[in-house]
Structures are given as C-alpha cells and as structure tokens.
Amino acid sequence: MTAPTPPTAPATPSPTRILLADDHALVRGGVRLILDAEPDLTVVAEAADGAEAVALARSESVDLAVLDISMPRMTGLQAARELSRLQPELRILILTMYDNEQYFFEALKAGASGYVLKSVADRDLVEACRAAVRDEPFIYPGAETALIRTYLDRAEQGRPLPDKAVTEREEEILKLVAEGHSSKEIGDLLVISPKTVERHRANLLQKLGMRDRLELTRYAIRVGLIEP
C-alpha cells in the first residue's frame, strides 16, 4: 500500500522589498534596523536624496519606497510624483518630521499611500509599510480622522485640494536656489537655459512677495524644501 503523500507546506511569501531614502545616514540606519527586524520586510536599496531614489527605483526591483520629505536635489514629494508617473504599481510612503496638513495633502496628490512621523517611526512605520502593501492608506494616529474627513469632503463636493503657492517647476528652482546653486548650475541640472531660470526666479520673488535669495531660502526652510 502506497504511503500517503505528506501535505505540502504553504510557500512563505517573499518579503516586501523596500527602497529607503533619507539624506541622513544615521536616520537611514535607524529606520533600516526597524524594517529589517520584521520577517516580511527587507530594505534592498538606500538613497541619500530624491534623485538617487528615482534612479534606484528604476534599476532595482522594489515594491515600496519610503521617502524622507526633505532631501537635497529632489524632495520626497518631488520624487514621489516622479515615481508615480514612472512606476504606478510602486507603493510609496512619506517619512517626515513635519506634522502638517498641507504636506499630507501634497503627499496624497503625489501618489503616496501613507504619511509617517519620524518621531514615532518605531511605533508606526512597520504598520504603515504593511498597509501600503495591502494598498490601504495610512496616516499617523490622531490626525487620521480629521485629515481624511477633510479630504473626502472636498472630493465629494468637487472642491479642489489646497493649492500650492508655487508650481512644480518653480518648486524645483526654489529648492536649488535655496541650496546655493547659480542660475547656470540650475540650468545644467534641469536642462533649461540660465535665462529661463532667471525668469522663474523673478516669478517666484513676485508671487511670494520677496526681495532676494535670503528670503527665498527662509521660505524654502519654512515649507520643508530644505533643512536649516
């Protein structure tokens, strides 16, 4: 008599492959420890700025991008917008120190499915990653109810989400100006002419009611494009 074939054990699903982007190596190290301690999560790539994150997402096989909101060259929101266009199936979380409603709305518009505060990352980040993989939204406890209710109310009434003060291109130029780049350097980075950079810069000064680079830099710090 043939012995019964033992049941096959169910295959263990592969862990979620994570791209982690933050310009502070110590922060990346701490976040990586939190994520790699979980059997279903693994960090497979690290980036020090948004542009590097976009490049790595295109060259590496990743399921989820965890992006700091304030990074050199390209912010987490800018990177999220680019990744959403290039890889719509990629899940995105924004990791931030800013408890700010405007950033939350910008994160949603950029294609992120979650918004996690760095101050409680040890408590919330793992849950946020798992929610993102399930294609569920995550927002830190306490802000969740009010923010999502506001968002849904606006959507139901056909009202636009809060407008940004500047366009995406102006935001790119504002960030680079605040980081100290010259018009020529900005033109080279964005593949536009220095004259076009100057025109955008003049528009920014007029639109924001500011006079010079110093005031633009203060504004960029205030809205989280660069860190002080």
Give an overview of the whole structure:
The protein is an alpha/beta fold and 228 residues long. It folds into two domains: 16-156, Response regulator (Rossmann fold, 3-Layer(aba) Sandwich), CATH 3.40.50.2300; 168-222, Arc Repressor Mutant, subunit A (Orthogonal Bundle), CATH 1.10.10. It has ten helices and six strands, in the order βαβαβαβαβαβααααα. Strands 2-1-3-4-5-6 form a six-stranded parallel β-sheet, sandwiched between helices. The chain is elongated, with a radius of gyration of 20 Å.
Structural class: alpha/beta
- Rg is 20 Å
Identify the overall geometry: elongated
Biggest sheet, strands in spatial order? 2-1-3-4-5-6
Task: Look at the structure and give the mean pLDDT.
Answer: 84
Oligomeric description of these chains: single chain
* Percent of residues in helices: 40-55%
| Helix-strand pattern | EHEHEHEHEHEHHHHH
Question: Strand portion, in percent?
Answer: 5-15%
Total number of strands:
6
Provide the fold topology.
Blueprint: E1 16-21, H1 25-36, E2 41-47, H2 50-59, E3 64-68, H3 76-86, E4 91-96, H4 101-110, E5 114-117, H5 121-133, E6 138-139, H6 144-156, H7 168-178, H8 183-190, H9 194-208, H10 213-222
InterPro entries: CheY-like_superfamily, NreC/VraR/RcsB-like_REC, Sig_transdc_resp-reg_C-effctor, Sig_transdc_resp-reg_receiver, Tscrpt_reg_LuxR_C, WalR-like
Domain HTH luxR-type: 159-224
Domain Response regulatory: 17-133
